[in-house]
Design goal:
The structure holds 2 protein chains of 2 kinds. Chain A has helices at about 5-25, 25-45, 50-60, 65-75, 80-85, 90-95, 130, 135-140, 140-150, 150-160, 195-200, 205-210; strands spanning about 105-110, 115-120, 170-175, 180-185. By secondary structure, chain A is mainly α. Chain A has a domain at about 65-210: Nitrile hydratase alpha /Thiocyanate hydrolase gamma (Nitrile Hydratase, Chain A). The chains are: A mainly alpha, B mainly alpha. Chains A and B meet through helix 1, helix 2, helix 3, helix 4 and helix 11 of A and helix 1, helix 2 and helix 3 of B.
Chain lengths: ~210, ~90
């Protein structure tokens, strides 16, 4: 699990060339477009700049994959919670105080020794914000969106995870109203750990499923 | 899930970890996101209408375009449809 960050970075270095090259030239244009929208909405009294500041700060600081990691740790420790989580993700996640935009229909899919789950959004980049925050760049890339459904094992292998042949891979496309999150397998050797310690083991990539 | 490669206690569970990545790569990206979220909330129309335009914008813009540029395009189109076109939008 330590190598995937590097694998993503390698992948992103490629993307980043494109992306930065692409918006290195017109950044002032895009900044002007954004500023024009803000002026308009503020002028019409529809929003305030303070509201925008608060939303941005929340997603930069408070809403992120730590929320999902707490959900996973709780499910590992509490079998009743785990069952509720798999039966009704939105309600069980709401028990821990997480919910809101893009979290209305959360479905949690469980990895088992026989099955590995992988989440993608092929049409845009739907993502369970309340539990994972905003999506990483590679999740939004055309390459990931296009290839995750077609060749999930290859995509995962490139990101540093090889799924054994006797483990089935299921791909969940979040393009409908539903947002998926993966409940990873609890690692061996963690029997004595408490909820916070367990949560510290869980990364965003486990909950997207690009890491097993 | 594989066993942790290093002791897990070196990171408190409360630290918002984003695998070393920035949530927004430039200030305008955060602004674009925040504007869309604030507008969707204020309009009371829900995310569905915005999401439809985002899907269309992602499909329209060339591969390699910043994801949040698609947000800006989607929001401009949504606003134009309700008669709120910012100057210079296109």
């Amino acid at each position: 699990m330590t190598t995937t960050g590097e694998a993503h970075d390698a992948d992103e270095a490629h993307d980043a060339g494109d992306t930065r090259g692409h918006h290195a030239a017109p950044p002032s244009t895009i900044e002007r477009r954004v500023a024009a929208i803000e002026s308009l909405l503020v002028e019409k009294g529809l929003i305030t700049s303070d509201t925008v500041d608060a939303v941005v700060a929340a997603y930069e600081h408070d809403i992120g994959p730590r929320n999902g990691a707490r959900v996973v740790a709780r499910a590992w420790l509490d079998d009743d919670y785990r069952r509720r989580l798999l039966a009704d993700g939105t309600a069980a996640i709401g028990e821990l105080g997480y919910g809101g935009a893009e979290g209305e229909h959360l479905v949690v899919v469980e990895n088992t020794p026989e099955v590995h789950n992988l989440v993608v959004c092929t049409l845009c980049s739907c993502y369970p914000w309340p539990v994972l925050g905003l999506p990483p760049r590679w999740y939004k890339s055309f390459a990931y969106r296009a290839r995750a459904v077609r060749e999930p094992r290859s995509v995962m292998a490139e990101l540093g995870t090889t799924v054994p042949d006797d483990v089935a891979v299921r791909v969940w496309d979040s393009s409908a109203e539903v947002r998926y999150m993966v409940l990873p397998l609890r690692p061996p050797g963690t029997e004595g750990m408490g909820q916070d310690e367990l949560a510290g083991l869980v990364t965003r990539d486990h909950m997207i499923g690009v890491v097993r | 899930m594989t066993a942790p490669a290093r002791p897990p206690t070196d990171l408190p569970a409360d630290v918002p970890r984003r695998n070393g990545e920035l949530v927004f790569e430039a200030p305008w990206e955060g602004r674009a996101f925040g504007l869309a979220a604030a507008y969707v909330d204020a309009s009371g129309a829900g995310w569905g209408a915005f999401r439809d335009r985002l899907i269309a914008a992602v499909a329209d813009l060339p591969d390699g375009t910043s994801y949040y540029e698609a947000w800006v395009t989607a929001l401009e189109r949504l606003l134009a449809e309700v008669g709120l076109a910012p100057p210079g939008a296109g």
